[in-house]
Automatic annotation (TrEMBL):
Organism: Streptomyces synnematoformans
Superkingdom field: Bacteria
Annotated protein name in UniProt: ABC transporter ATP-binding protein
CDD domains for this protein: ABC_DR_subfamily_A
Keywords: ATP-binding, Nucleotide-binding
Length: 246
């Protein structure tokens, strides 16, 4: 399968702390890849490196055959951040139509995406007056409206009700079916089963990679929470053996 994102020996240091420890991974085109791990594991830092806004200490990140951050990638990548990135002094409609116009898309396209994220009734409302969950959906609409080839989503379903979460995942699956590459982070393990492939990360290192069924089979459990715990414990045991040998 063709690769959309290639990460090689990526190290990121913030202050005196190494956040990512020389990680390497590949993300295939046209699938949904889940980046899973607890808060503080390095998920957002990896995402920032993929979209080219993170200073890296060493290693490389290549997206669609170009170095991450290249000017020619700006119109080909969509990025949904944990902190909503929309203009609070504009309405939902004005925000989404603005981002659509940057890619020569019309009002109809913008309004369609607003409906898809469940904000049709709030389309004329100032973003500053939205609830937290609605604010997040407005940001998601801005990321989706441009039809990016690669869509990086940092915990897009946090704070959303189960019905909307289901609708969003249907939207993600539809995008992948039409050839888009999605990388979705979450700390909710039940969402992992919706992904084609998984990258499990902990404390800045990749613990395991593979499809949900592959990872569960490898760890001898049908529960991804338990699978992650078993992988973590195996990693800890290996680290302890390494200390004893040293």
């Amino acid at each position: 399968m063709e690769t959309a994102i290639e990460v090689r020996d990526l190290t990121v240091v913030r202050g005196a702390r190494e956040v990512l420890h020389g990680i390497s991974t590949d993300v295939p085109r046209g699938v949904i890849t889940g980046l899973l791990g607890p808060s503080g594991s390095g998920k957002t830092t990896l995402f920032r490196a993929i979209v080219g806004v993170q200073i890296v200490s060493s290693g490389t990140v290549t997206v669609l055959g170009k170095p991450a951050g290249s000017a020619e990638l700006r119109r080909r990548i969509g990025y949904y951040t944990q902190s909503p990135s929309v203009y609070t002094d504009l309405t939902v409609r004005e925000n989404v139509r603005y981002f659509a116009s940057l890619h020569s898309l019309g009002a109809a396209e913008a309004d369609s995406v607003i409906r898809e994220v469940g904000l049709a009734e709030q389309a004329g409302q100032m973003v500053s007056t939205l609830s937290g969950g609605q604010h997040s959906r407005a940001s998601l609409a801005c990321a989706l409206v441009t039809h990016p080839e690669v869509l990086v989503l940092d915990e897009p379903t946090v704070g959303q009700d189960p019905v909307l979460r289901e609708e969003l995942w249907e939207r993600f699956r539809d995008l992948a079916g039409r050839g888009a590459t999605l990388v979705v982070s979450s700390h909710i393990m039940d969402e992992a089963n919706r992904c084609d492939g998984l990258i499990l990360i902990r404390e800045g290192s990749i613990v395991a990679e593979g499809g949900p069924d592959e990872i569960k089979s490898r760890t001898g459990t049908d529960d991804l929470d338990q699978a992650f715990l078993r992988l973590v414990r195996a990693q800890d045991a290996e680290n302890e053996r390494g200390k004893e040998v040293a």
